[in-house]
Structure prediction request, 196 residues.
Amino acid sequence: MNEQDLDLLQKWRTGDNAAGSRLVKNHFEALHRFFSNKARGNEEDLIQQTFMACVEAKDAFRGESTFRAYLFGLARFQLLTHYRKVYRNPEIDLTTTSIRDLATSPTGILLRREEQQLLELALQHIPLDQQIALELSYWEELSAPEVARVLGVPENTVYSRVRRAKSHLKDVLEKLSDVANDRQRALDALSARKQR
Prediction:
C-alpha cells in the first residue's frame, strides 16, 4: 500500500475530511473507469458507496495488498450489491453473468416505467405524512429516528405510520389496477428505488 494512501485513509477514518478528499481525488478517475462500462449512469453513486465502505470498514484492510486492490475489491462488492438490488436477485454471480446477460430489453424498460407511474400515482392518494414517511424510509434510507425528527413525532409512531402507509398504498393500488402482478410490481418498485 502506498504510504500516502494509508496515511490519508487513517486520517479520514479519524475525521479529517481534507484527507478523505485527497484520497478520493487520487482514486476517483480509476473507479469511474471501473464503473463506467459496467453500470453507466450509476458511477457517482457507486464511487461514493465504495469510499464510504472503505471508511466504515475500519478493520477490514490489513495491509495484505495494495490500497488500490483493496479499493477495487470494495468496488466489485458495491457493483454486485447494485445489480442484486436492481434485478431483485440475490443469486447474481459475477463469475458467470455478463453485462449483456443483465441488459434490460425495451419491454423491460417500458414495464418498469409503468410500475413507477402506478406507484407514484398511488402515493399521491395516501395522506401526505404517510407518503413522506415511506419515501424517506425507502428512497432516502433515513432511519426511524431521522424520519421521526422530520415528521416531529416519536420514533415508535414512525413504525406504525410506515405500516399504515404501506397498507393504504396496497388499498389504493387495488383501486387503481385490477391486475395483481401490476400491483405487486408497483410495491416492489417502492423497495427497488432504495438503491437508486
The two ends are 32 Å apart (CA to CA). The chain has ten helices and no strands.
